[in-house]
Design a protein that fits this description.
The protein is an alpha/beta fold. 31% of the residues lie in helices and 32% in strands. The strands form 4 sheets. The protein has a 5-stranded parallel β-sheet with strand order 2-1-3-4-5, with helices on both faces. The protein has a 5-stranded antiparallel β-sheet with strand order 10-9-8-12-11. The longest helix is centred in the last third of the chain and has 13 residues. One of its GO terms (molecular function) is phosphorelay response regulator activity. It comes from Cocleimonas flava. Keywords: DNA-binding, Phosphoprotein, Two-component regulatory system.
């Protein structure tokens, strides 16, 4: 059975090289290409590839962040990272991707990695990505589905996240969307940029302008440019007051 492959690299010559290495091998078919991580996620939705040859260092969204978003998909493809920079190896392996290739990629190494990936079924690939340990240190986007399409929201545009049962509302500059990520995972990934004010809410640190009390004496955060009223729980009041005072 032919394995469908998505090739993701911001350099056209690199994509062409992979094409040339596989062009005479009927076991593998390049079903699509992408030149950055954001485009890669769109191509995954559109073409449902079995595997991605994924460059790590790219504009817009790097390969490690792509792997993070893939982990939330119901049937993720296998991932083989490609890069010219050896210092990414440790972080790439922490994602438990099925392979890691250094550029310039040699045909023998490529075919060996593809064969290893072929041995995993979809359920096994999903488990590999579910077990990944990619942190949110380099995460720059929130990935949401809108009317069947993927929408990428820059982290810097987000005002707050608010949980309601299994869903989380993302309030951002252009409006709001609902995602299925947990508030806990968002807090872990984005701890340097967001602060918890309530068991159901994280607010962007840079967006908090002060505190106020509502008409029944409950403390609320004031958020720049929007009038949304988010309550600070008693458990978090002291921490939020310290944060506002010391910023």
């Amino acid at each position: 059975m032919t394995m469908n492959i998505l090739v993701v690299d911001d350099e056209e010559l690199a994509r062409q090289r992979i094409q040339s290495l596989l062009q005479e091998n009927s076991e593998y078919k390049i079903c699509a290409e992408a030149e950055n991580g954001a485009e890669a996620l769109m191509m995954v939705e559109r073409h449902q590839p079995d595997l991605i040859l994924l460059d790590i260092s790219m504009p817009v969204m790097d390969g490690l962040e792509v792997a993070k978003h893939l982990s939330g998909m119901p049937n993720p493809p296998a991932v083989i990272f490609t890069t010219a920079y050896g210092e990414y190896a440790l972080e790439a392996f922490s994602t438990k991707a099925t392979g890691y290739l250094m550029k310039p990629i040699r045909q023998e190494q490529l075919l060996k990695s593809l064969q290893q990936a072929r041995s995993l079924n979809r359920a096994q690939r999903s488990k590999v990505l579910d077990d990944n340990e990619v942190t949110g240190a380099g995460r720059k986007h929130i990935c949401a589905r809108m009317r069947g399409n993927l929408e990428l929201i820059p982290i810097e545009d987000v005002y707050y996240f608010q949980a309601d049962q299994k869903y989380v509302t993302v309030r951002h500059k252009q409006g709001e969307v609902i995602i299925e990520e947990s508030l806990k995972s968002l807090e872990t990934d984005l701890a340097d940029k967001f602060i918890r004010i309530h068991r159901n809410a994280l607010v962007a640190k840079s967006r908090i302008t002060g505190l106020a009390k509502n008409n029944i004496g409950r403390v609320q955060v004031k958020i720049e440019k929007i009038d949304d009223q988010l309550e600070v729980s008693r458990r978090h009041v002291a921490e939020i007051r310290r944060f506002v005072r010391n910023r």
